[in-house]
Amino acid sequence: MSLLQTWAVGAVIIIASSFFSEVVLYFHDYIYTRLGINRNTILLLLWTVPIFVSFYVSYTVKKYNVLLGISYVPIVIISSSLFHFINGYIGGKIDFVGFAGLKALFPILLLASSIACGIGTFLGIILKKG
Predict the structure, then answer these.
(1) Global confidence as pTM
(2) Measuring CA to CA, which residue among 41, 17, 45, 39 is closest to residue 27?
(3) Which of 15, 78, 79, 81 is most buried by a 10 A CB count?
């Protein structure tokens, strides 16, 4: 795959994980208990998706691997904020609703996505050379 295709596939995966992290909140814990899984585990796995995507991109591309791995930070912030805003707008039970909620959510998403994409990019570069 080309550099742009690899990055675009990663962006689609991150947007999908942001969407599903909001969808997971709609189902009651009883459903997850019946399935034998924990909802918080699913949310944790969805939040680790940027680590794996930035790792994959920085590991597979030949140049611009740091830039491409870190470039997922705005994608995570924008997609998570957008789906969270839509979830609050349609009546979902969330803590931070509306534009005031976006102002409260932005620094949390910025820190979490920067750490996640930074870890994935760092691991991809280190394991690529090692």
Answers:
(1) 0.87
(2) 39
(3) 79
